[in-house]
Amino acid sequence: MRTTILQLFLHLFLLFGLSPLLSGVIGKTKALFAGRVGPPLLQLYFDIWKLFGKGMVISRTTTWIFRAGPVVGLAVPLLASLLIPFGPVGAPISFSGDLIFFVYLFGLSRFFTACAALDTGSSFEGMGAVREVTFSCLAEPTLFFVFIVLARLSGSFSLDAMFGQTLATSWHTAAPSLLLILVCLFIVTLVENCRIPFDDPNTHLELTMIHEVMVLDHSGPDLGMILYGAAMKFLVLGALVVRLFLPGTTGNMALDILLFIGGLLFMAVVIGVIESVMARLRLLRIPQLLVGVSLLSFFSLILLLR
Amino acid sequence: MDTLLNLLLLLVILLNFFLLGSSRLVSCIRTIAFQGGILSLLPLLAHGFSGHTLFLAGVAFLLKGIAIPYLLFRAIRQVHIRREVEPLIGYVPTLILGTLATAGAFIFSGRLPLIPEHSQSLFVPVGLATLATGFLMLISRRKAITQALGYLIFENGIFIFGMLLTEAMPLMVESGVLLDLLVGVFVMTILMHQINREFSTMNTDNLTSLKE
Amino acid sequence: MENNLLALLLLLPFCGSVLAFSLPSDRLRPLLLPLCATPHLALTFLVIQSGRPLTTANGWIGVDPLSRLILPVISLLFLGCSFYAVGYLRCRIAWGNRNFVGCLLLFLSAMTLATISRHLGLLWVAVETTTVASAPLIYYNRNRLSMEATWKYLLLGSVGIALAMLGILFIAYAGLAGGEHVSLQLDDILHGAANYSRPWLRAGFVFLLVGFGLKVGFAPLHTWKPDAYGEAPGLVGALLAGGLTSVAFLALLRTLQIMDAASEAVMAREAFLAMGLLSIAFAAVFVVRQPDFKRMLAYSSVEHMGILAIGISVGGVATFGAMLHLINNALTKGVLFLAAANIHRRFGSKKVADARGAISLVPLSATLFLLGFLAITGSPPFAPFISEFTILQGVFSNGHFVTGGLFLFFLAVIFIGMGSTVLSVVFGTPPEKTGTGYENYRDTFATTGVPLIMLLIIFVLGVYLPDPVRHICADAAALLEVRP
């Protein structure tokens, strides 16, 4: 019981404390590449703080759904984070089959975000919602294939066990499969968090953007919740990637946690590099790439079952 | 050694996927060259260093990795074609078919009566999957050059399968096989040039006057 | 000494080809063809005369009864075509002939290598080389249609031959899986085939059948054939239909030998029978009302490959018939293609609608075409009658009544179908305005002498079969008989 409470505490601490920092690291890396000074590392904290202090403007045509979007968007990553281990820290909540719960939690948040976007009645936001839903439904099979591979390797259907101690030994027996799903999971993280090359989080008022367009009408604390939720979602998916990448433990809890945080920051740097050297894909190419990634994850499953 | 070998073979499969999904001819030809380069490493990794394997690797690298890609690059430079715009079967469907074929190859090769030393090796499934990829490319593309690329991938598949049997293949025959491939591609590129000059496109759709 | 003979046989046309590529004069270069072909034939006779089986020290090339049968066929056919080519290339002097002559000689060299190779890898390389060497020959006319035909031929041929390579690898693997010494030498394979792993062997056979069957032109793998034969110059058509198909068929016979040695003959022969019947059926369907007389010849080639396959599959006396038919088919195709080329040149078209009444314009070529048609459809007194009759006799005496019935029915359909086309080409009313280009063509000895001599040969063979020919056929047939 005590460990569970400790885990819960650590999870919440990492989630709330660390998540906006990752976005700052990405921004700093990109600025470095572009030869700029860039915003401070803690910029997102300031932004969120500022937004929570502001008032809101809400369109008269909207209903409660519009308000529900940001709330769900914040609650879902919070809940999802409790299902997965953060590096060496085990998941506070774990049950058999929680991987499906995990995937559909994000489905729920997407549903509400899209509904909130549609609720404004703006055709522009509707278009964003369509794109978001299309791409995420193409990314979802990949996530499932990745989980199936891990479930097969660990022999368990709970995320805690799948990303648990067995992972390190699996790297010895099924390295090719794990390497492939690591790539797949990383790409899913990029898609789900609207990063380049799938979406550009910095563009506004551009016809090709996806996620940002849906939240144009939100303001004040609502927008703050959305930003915070997005940062947490990034941390949650990133935690899976980092765990897959750094499966082992040194035995020392504090060192392991530091390693985990280091891994997260490293991933943020990598994403920053990717965003600096790549251009956003043409919208038509995105589904093609996503299908390709799904097929890759399917292939890794075949490789494992052989 | 074996892990490296398997990783290389896996890379071959990934390149297959890339070839099926890419419309840009330049990157396709580069990928073919890269695949050829990987293939030329296989004899060394699979059978160790000896005169035979060194020679085979050298010839394979020269022809598959350098000479044939050079010919293809020259062909597309002459005809100013950069991409395959309208394949007969779209890129996503060919990718899906390619993955299914690859999966099939892996499952099928598990059932083949292989000798015990080969039962874990990836040579057979990767060879079959590459064959299937080449075949798919041959039937799903319109341009003469992409059909030729399909034929090359097909040949690569056979080369991979042949790795199991290098002792049966004398050097002279092996180099004859590769040389024939080179000359075949050479003649094909000349024909591509002519087709393009005659029809001002390289689509083989135009080659339909001969029928019953 | 005899080994040197084989080396000489290979090197002669190869050196000729190198010389042709380096010789600057378009006028003199065609003379290289008969200059190489005549000693090639002489050497061939020397080789088949020595009774002992010839093999080189490492056993890679050698002469067995099957090579003894096919080597003179291609050599003779090539000699005929080389004399024809001299006259033909004189008319086309403006087009240049460096590639044409060079590739022709390379083609001969590759066919020779395929005939005498006793190593499956070498055989494969040789057959693939024939594909590559003959593609420029088909493209000689340099128009859109020949381009299309060449592209199809090259791509299909290459893919087919690649499948054959896979088949060869499978057979080698069968040896590995059967615990035998891995080798691709025919003698090693025949020696150890009894222990070969069955699944691999059968799979290898299927790939070889498809791969080399594509080169032979079995239906439904024949689609390149009408295009290539139709668009290639006549003498190239003759060489493809008479020479290349024989060589590819030899490759199939090698496969059959392996299957026989592994006591898998039943499966192999059934596959041959199915392919043969299908080929004849396809040919019968497409030959009827064929508007293009060169394409018609291509379908006739498909038919005769089918007949060969049926003869081989039935066994017994039919094998002998098939061996004899291989000779007859090659020579008769030579007559037909060369005569058809003359008619084509006179009218500037190979469509029956444009080319009619050839008998009044080019009487000699038209007569040759008509007689060639009679010969190829198995009318007495020409040699194909004897061989087809022997095959039919074998079919019925072995109790294949359904096969025999279908065989006869399709032959009748093909006779009628080809007949209507040939007769309207030869005897129809000449069109008002005859074609373009070559209107001033008249029959000369240079263009009709060769088919005339070939026709005489098959006439003589039809009336009297000399003992050496009979022996060669019988020996070759004996090699293919199933030994219980």
The pair of chains with the biggest contact is: B-C, 43 and 45 residues
Low-confidence stretches of chain A: none
Unreliable stretches covering 5 or more consecutive residues of chain C: none
Helix content of chain A: over 70%
Percent helix range of chain C:
over 70%
N- to C-terminal distance of chain A = 41 Å
Instruction: Write the H/E string of chain A, N to C.
Output: HHHHHHHHHHHH
Description:
The complex is a heterotrimer of chains A (306), B (212) and C (484). With 306 residues, chain A is mostly helical. In chain A, 72% of the residues lie in helices and 0% in strands. Chain A has one domain (2-305). Chain A has 12 helices and no strands. With 212 residues, chain B is mainly α. Chain B has helices at 2-21, 25-47, 51-79, 91-111, 123-140, 144-162, 171-199. The termini of chain B are far apart. Chain C is mainly α. Chain C has a domain at 264-484. Helix content of chain C is 76%, strand content 1%. The longest helix of chain C has 34 residues, at 144-177. Chain B binds chain C through residues 112-115, 131, 138, 144, 147-148, 151, 154-155, 158, 161-162, 164-165, 167-170, 172-174, 176-177, 180, 183-184, 187-188, 191, 194-195, 198-199, 204, 206-210, 212, and chain C through 119, 121-122, 124-125, 128-129, 131-132, 135-136, 139, 142, 144-145, 147-152, 154-155, 158-159, 162, 165-166, 169, 172-173, 175-177, 182-184, 197, 199-200, 226-227, 230-231, 286.
